[in-house]
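This follows on from our talk about sequence and fold. Go ahead and set the record down below:
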Amino acid sequence: MLGPKAISMGGAAPLIPAAPITPQDIIDTQNGTKFIYLWGWTKYFDVFPRTAEHITRFCWLILTTGNPMTFNPAQPGSLTFHNLHHVEGNCADDECS
């Protein structure tokens, strides 16, 4: 969970039986023929009494560095993911339309 104006540098991802994004998909994003976006929203109430419900929406473009074909989980940095705030889809409360 992130607090107001917090910065996230990423974190561990759970191991899954089959990758929804293949190494070829990652290569295609590096070549500019595919794009990976992560988007979503959250609604919440803060700790102050009688305040309105808040909403935060986000949309990130995911960029990668490294070779997905030689990725080694035991070698930090062999494949890295970076998120850039997309020009659309990021807002909070009254900014959201």
Observations:
- The helical segments are 23-31.
- The longest helix spans residues 23-31.
- The chain is about 10% helix and 30% strand.
